[in-house]
């Protein structure tokens, strides 16, 4: 089948220089960072695939929008512009801006979870789950089993398993379920989408039992692109139409503007219920800021409103996801084990299969991420046992089935040649994988340990032997 290239629907107007480093510099830097890429100074990173969060390149229109910032404390013009954009594309009635996604998660968790309730979700997300627990809730995973199998080619691995959800309702009773936390394009599963058919059925089941559904809409548009490509009946719909079909099923959403929406900071909580919105506006002033800015500057809200409009463009998502697919396909051709199907926001290396000689308690994904940095200055991040942390009940380390290194692609930032550098480095490491040494943890923070944990090689003083 002949394929047209997915070339970007933009050209480059300004460049930011990158600093090249030597292997010796990188060996020293990763040791000083405790073998945790989160602790590396970015000036020592060549290609930064740590995250797609807040790392997008803004357009000239967004940069121009910054100049239109109305920095009034109350009732900023940019707030109303953002409210219009959210109402038009996401469809929710009330907008409560927050400084970023976890600010919205905090508000929602505090408002809707009572001590002892359970919060089902289609796979956990780190900050989401922590806020649910801090509010007294317990996360229960109701994602389909396929999501835990990195080899399974199911086109909608983000789907909720309706039988698991029904069983939870039967077991604990709907009144003990705070709400369903439904994530579009499930991050921890490798950027895997939900189908609209599944979203509809899941929301209908919840509605029938009076269980509210709140969307984590952080990557909803990337999910919409997959629906448009893969689900029968959506080829002729716009991404914006598909987005409304999703959001209209739900009671509200939390949103990190740092992903889909092409800005460097921001987020919001959006809800339909008037009473809940009033309560949220009461709480937002305690933790974030006044209800018309919630921790964002006026100019940030303007850039976000424009970013939302740019993010619903099919050509944009086609190129964004096309670039991720290019990276993934080339790695598959090189025989590198990655999560399939290739996700939307990054390529996830299956570190457990990549490094069979490194046992799970020596953190294969953390070791591989550190070794990749030493090899080429490419920074990825661990999504495995370090990220999963410990059980709330037993304090034992959790070992999730997925032990991954995430190579996350910032939007509109790197070129295809950058992707080629990444491909060469990962393929080379894979050919000589026995050179990678396991790690042990030497410092473990209490919360979200993956951000600041420190490690050292289990033998010798190198994570990548010569
Ligand atoms: C990034 C992210 C969040 C948290 O948002 P922040 O803006 O980083 O606080 C929540 N959910 C998902 C799925 C995310 O990817």
What attributes characterize this protein structure?
466 residues, alpha/beta, Aspartate Aminotransferase, domain 1, Aspartate Aminotransferase, domain 2, 5-stranded mixed sheet, 3-stranded antiparallel sheet, 16 helices, 12% strand, binds pyridoxal-5'-phosphate
Layout of SSEs?
Layout: H1 23-32, E1 47-48, H2 60-66, H3 77-89, E2 94-98, H4 101-112, E3 118-121, H5 126-134, E4 138-141, H6 162-172, E5 180-183, H7 196-208, E6 213-216, H8 220-230, H9 239-247, E7 252-256, E8 267-271, H10 274-287, H11 298-311, H12 314-333, E9 346-350, H13 351-354, H14 364-376, E10 378-379, E11 381-383, H15 385-388, E12 404-408, H16 416-431, E13 439-443, E14 454-457
Parallel strand pairs: 1-10, 3-4, 5-6, 6-7
Antiparallel strand pairs: 2-8, 7-8, 9-12, 11-12, 13-14
The chain binds pyridoxal-5'-phosphate.
